[in-house]
Amino acid sequence: MVALAGLVVGGCTGIELGAVGVAALSAGAGSVVKTGTEYTLTGIAYRTFSLPLDDPAVLRSTLARMEFRVDEAAVVNGDLVVVAGGIDCAVHLRLTAITPAVTRLRVSVRKGLINLDRATTSEIVTQLERSIGYLNSPADLR
User: Residues spanned by CATH 3.30.160.110 within the chain?
Assistant: First the structure.
């Protein structure tokens, strides 16, 4: 890690910090979300699930279990957009169909006007993964 930082700072190789990637530098720093969850620099998370978009019940039940209230849900340009609220925060979710059985989730949690809460965003993704995993467990196949 120190050698990598020296290369980036020293400029010997021309490797840009963005080329290395934030995930490589933050690996092992308490990351609980599976590989495959992408983050923008602004804290927005993207995750793709094997789940049809036309059945958002798992999303609603996950938010309810976490005690987020759903304030708004609408279809915008074919995407399902959900706005939920917590204590002093707003959760913005957008589900986009990739195929009839695969859905991409975009989620961000905003505290105030400019602060994005990456920890809460990660926990929502993790809880949604658990809910989907429970639905797809072998017990459900009986």
Answer: 32-141
How far is it, in rounded angstroms, from Cα 72 to Cα 88? 17
d(CA 22, CA 126): 19
32-141 homologous superfamily: Sirohaem synthase, central domain (3.30.160.110)
Q: What share of the chain is helix, strand, coil (3-state, %, to 5)?
A: 35, 30, 35
Q: Which helix (H) or strand (E) holds 128?
A: helix 118-135
- Between CA 108 and CA 86, with CA 106 as vertex, the angle to 5 degrees is 35
- pTM: predicted TM-score of the whole model, two decimal places: 0.68
Confidence of residue 116 (pLDDT cuts 50, 70, 90): confident
1 to 14, 28, 34, 40: CA distances (angstroms): 17, 12, 22, 22
Three-class secondary structure of residue 32 per DSSP: coil
